[in-house]
Specification:
single chain; about 160 residues; mainly beta; five-stranded antiparallel sheet; 3 helices; about 40% strand
């Protein structure tokens, strides 16, 4: 494995689990620490697009996945705040969760969605802090439409079946 290769985490460790990084997650290798046989790895969140965490991982806990064809990882690793990202957050919602809109905003009203409307989370990930929610009309069950909603404007009213 070489710098900037993508590797898969093949074992769970208590330290990584406490940072919401689990077996099977993909990470980009940033630098090798020879005496400790560890890599500095940037893991990206499968739940929040754009979120990442930088952690140390034993080389024996990683398996080569592929070599990226772009310089995205290198560009991010040069950010001044790169090493301050030390854990991933647990997702607030999951795919098919039932949610209620708890806040009125003009962008929601333009789509015909208002405080108190119920919907269903459509994907297992957010874009930034916004979740794609399919809202239905009260009583009829007819779809109003899909709206990207900030997660703080939603409350969980039931777990989906996934």
């Amino acid at each position: 494995m070489e710098k900037y290769d993508c590797a898969r985490l093949i074992d769970d460790t208590e330290e990584l689990k406490s940072k919401n990084i689990f077996k099977g997650y993909l990470g980009d290798l940033i630098s090798y620490i020879s005496p400790s046989d560890e890599w500095i790895v940037m893991f990206t969140s499968p739940f929040y697009h754009g979120e990442f965490a930088v952690v140390r991982v034993k080389a024996s806990n990683l398996k080569y996945a592929y070599t990226p064809q772009d310089s995205f990882t290198q560009e991010i690793s040069e950010r001044p705040d790169f090493y301050t990202h030390t854990s991933l957050r647990e997702p607030k919602f999951k795919e098919y969760d039932h949610v209620r809109l708890i806040c009125d905003r003009p962008e929601y009203a333009e789509e015909g969605v208002h405080k108190g409307d119920d919907g269903c989370v459509m994907f297992s990930h957010a874009h930034g802090d916004r979740w794609d929610v399919l809202f239905s009309e009260h009583g009829t069950g007819e779809d109003i439409g899909e709206v990207m909603v900030h997660e703080d404007d939603l409350e969980l009213i039931g777990r989906g079946e996934n």
